[in-house]
Design goal:
The complex is a heterodimer of chains A (about 110) and B (about 120).
Chain A: E1 4-7, E2 10-14, E3 19-25, E4 30-38, E5 45-50, E6 56-59, E7 62-67, E8 72-77, E9 86-94, E10 101-102, E11 106-111
Parallel strand pairs in A: 2-11
Antiparallel strand pairs in A: 1-3, 3-8, 4-5, 4-9, 6-7, 7-8, 9-10, 9-11
Chain B: E1 4-7, E2 10-13, E3 19-25, E4 32-38, E5 44-51, E6 57-58, E7 67-73, E8 76-81, E9 90-97, E10 107-109, E11 113-117
Parallel strand pairs in B: 2-11
Antiparallel strand pairs in B: 1-3, 3-8, 4-5, 4-9, 5-6, 7-8, 9-10, 9-11
The chains are: A mainly beta (about 110), B mainly beta (about 120).
Chain lengths: ~110, ~120
């Protein structure tokens, strides 16, 4: 059973546009929601993360929006650049737990 | 951010041989490390949780006798794929959870190791 559902599977955005990736979860015990960026042949790198006590977190061009009641969170990439082309994974972890549950990934392509 | 080093980054071996992959946390201590397997264009699948000084905890369906994990120190965990077969070919990624004050709780990933079994 997929603990974290992610959409879309792939996304093509024009340079300068906004990329939006959505994730949903069911387990209300989750209290940490990171996003990872992965380039081909490389390990995932932590991009930005949020805890459920805030509804939004922004770091540069990257913003996480969190809707606790809907159990959804999303990543927004503003002014998308070709260098942002990568696979993005959302994830979730329960309080006191070690393990991260990953979404299925979104392959983002930003075209010049 | 914290650095996790994985070695080798790629390895090719013959069927039936064993391959060891190392995962090191370079600038922090990690009492817990994780090993993932990733198939092309798919998500990361947790294989096992490695705890320093104790036995690893394996996920359902992962053969512990085939994927040997050792976490001998606070900065090193190793994954040994024993008697490798072509179906074991995959991208193996480790991650470490920092236990120090600076980046406590965050998970940092290694660069991954691509194993190809001929």
């Amino acid at each position: 059973q997929q603990q974290v559902k992610q959409s879309p599977q792939s996304l093509i955005v024009q340079k300068g546009g906004i990329s939006i990736i959505n994730c949903a979860y069911e387990n209300t015990a989750f209290d940490y929601f990171p996003w990872y960026q992965q380039f081909p042949g490389k390990g995932p790198a932590l991009l930005i993360a949020i805890r459920p006590d805030v509804s939004e977190k922004k770091e540069g061009r990257f913003t996480i929006s969190f809707n606790k009641s809907a159990k959804q969170f999303s990543l927004h990439i503003m002014d998308s650049q070709p260098g942002d082309s990568a696979t993005y994974f959302c994830a979730a972890r329960g309080a006191g737990a070690n393990n991260l549950f990953f979404g299925t990934g979104t392959r983002l392509t930003v075209i010049p | 951010g914290a650095v996790v080093s994985q070695h080798p980054s790629w390895v090719i071996c013959k069927s039936g041989t064993s391959v060891k992959i190392e995962c090191r946390s370079l600038d922090f201590q990690a009492t817990t490390m994780f090993w993932y397997r990733q198939f092309p264009k798919q998500s990361l699948m947790l294989m096992a949780t490695s705890n320093e000084g104790s036995k690893a905890t394996y996920e359902q369906g992962v053969e512990k006798d085939k994927f040997l994990i050792n976490h001998a120190s606070l900065t090193l965990s190793t994954l040994t794929v024993t008697s490798a077969h072509p179906e074991d070919s995959s991208f193996y990624i480790c991650s470490a959870r920092a236990s120090g004050r600076r980046v406590s709780g965050e998970l940092f990933f290694g660069e991954g190791s691509r194993l190809t079994v001929l």
